[in-house]
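Table S5 (text form). Sequence records supplied for joint modeling of the two-component complex.
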Amino acid sequence: MKTVDAMKLSQLSDKFSTYFEKGKPLHFLSSLYDAIDSFFLTPKTVTKGGSHVRDAVDMKRVMITVMIALLPALCFGIWNVGSQHYIALGESASFWKCVGYGLLKWLPMVVVTYVSGLTIEVIFAQRRGHQVAEGFFVTGFLIPMIMPPDVPLWMVAVATAFSVLFAKEVFGGTGYNFLNPALVARAFVFFAYPSVISGDAVWISGAPDAVSGATPLALAASGATGQMPSFMEMFVGTVPGCIGETSKIAILIGALILLLTQGPAGRLC
Amino acid sequence: MEYRIRKGLDLHLAGAPLPMVDALPPSECCYIRPTDYRWLTPKMLVQPGDSVQVGTPLFADKFDERIVFVSPVEGTVCEIVRGEKRVVECIILSVDRNQPTIRKVDFNPPTTPETLRNLLLQYGLWPSMRQRPFSIIARPDDHPKALFIPCFDSAPLAPSYKMLLNEHRDNLLAGLRALRLLVGDKVPIHLCMSHKEDNLFLESLHDVQLQYFTGPHPAGNLGPQIHRISPLDKGDIVWYIQPWNVAQIGRLLSKGELTFNRIFALTGPAIRHPHYYSTTLGMDVSRSFDHNLSEEHVRIISGNVLSGTAVGDYVTPRFYDAQLTLLPEGGEREVLGWLRPNLHKWSFSHTFLAWLVKHHIFNFNTSQHGDQRNFVMTGVYDKVFPYQSILPLELLKACKTHNIELMEDLGIYEVDDEDFALCEVVCPSKMPCQEMIREGLREILNENR
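The corresponding structure-token record, covering 718 residues in total, follows.
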């Protein structure tokens, strides 16, 4: 059954791909078409020389493995954003209410990141006559995880565009970059719009002014060690912060996944 | 001496040859490809219609016309096939099947290196002697610092050298004596062996160095072996020769018989009954597949699946190969392949659940499993690259950027493209690593010429 589906899809893809060939009207979208095509169906490329057999792993598989390793931190972070919000408001909220609030914060951010970043990626790939590289899928996943939950969406868009353009594409794209584009996006926000990513007020989403969301480090620096969260709270991650950064346990689970899968993904972290 | 190669990888493919030799009757066509010899520019010495016998020169090296390449059979030159830019792709000989493939020749037994060298050049046996770096035919006037004879092959489905040479032990000994005369007493002759293989009785020899290698493939590759035994600096040259060519030389010198008969292994997942066949160099061997194929669309590879060459229309093992591998053609598409757990796909990484199945024989085919991407620093090359002091990714990048100085600093003289075959296999970016190294080596060779 699966093979039949693959064959039908493959025939459909062969039919459509003719519209995107060189000299055809839709050629200017060929990189985008190719990206969508290879998303649904593995490429039919065969080896041409050198080693005639190849490892089944490709960049898509490497990147999806990294994304799977990010999931524990992401899931915990989504809940934690909601949880911190309701704690700051002094309300008690159910698990799903917290998750719902967190999703409302994360989803728009991830959509904005992917739209702005992928648009640039596709334009560059098309201009260079390349295929769209998979590297941005991880970058686009990481950026919302390292931003404060209330960061304005337009800033996310600008930071993503800046990082993709100036940390990656100007050097030649994925593989040629010498900086991590996700961290460049965060650094960009830090230097361009410091008020949304520093201080005590930004780490809890929708917090009333009276509530301080100071980080444990800030508390320790100001001498208020008594107000610091406990070690377990910090380790589990029930403290204010970015979506993906608070839970050390979840991050360690991700690291474990990368170590277990060995090979390519192990070094990417 | 014992050496252990720690880094590497054994691929488990179906279709290892059974220890059985069948004789293939002579075919009508014999294919001689100048492209079997790396970067050779041939100068043709025959025309279509010319009659040839065993040992008749067909073409010579344009840059050293002493090096001639001879006909392995008696017959007529049928066609000279040229490809792009008029490169000679193949000389097709029509074989006279009534004539033997062994020719008796008379000569004065050589007593000096010069007379022996001239004899080998005259009868077309010199091209079997190659050199590192570059893996090109050895230049007759060079003085190598060592001579290597690989006595086992660790590549996937590789033939057993015992099967290839079982009947030629006396020839092999005579050939070794000749090589000692050729290189002189001061140049060491290293026989690279494995405990897994029969030692071809060679352990009784005194004037050769026996070197034993253990570990996964590429323990049998010459590059890592030379790297351990006699590392190459710029300007150094070592020679190497396959043992069946040593036996061929021995047969000529001890019995006066010139022949290009040899045994090859027919292997691969697409073959029902993989085993050995005896034939003559260049003979069309497609009849060995008759009723023996388990797949319809196959790729015929001379050599192994890691660094062999697809033979195309001329179905015969290449000059330096004793193996044909038949691999099913791939290219089938899979829905959301990057997401599936996939218990049946082989991967060096553990990103597919198939790693939980130990020693499973996978159904390999020619699928690339993805498109080419840029290098990404994954560190996976280091896990399969056998050299201790060479950085594979950096060397590949130096080749890609045509930076000859950097290539030399990173040790390119020690490597050959086949040493990067495993890097190419496991590369998630699907980089053509072997081609990059080959081009790098060629650039350096052109620079030095």
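Note: Chain A has a mean pLDDT of 86.
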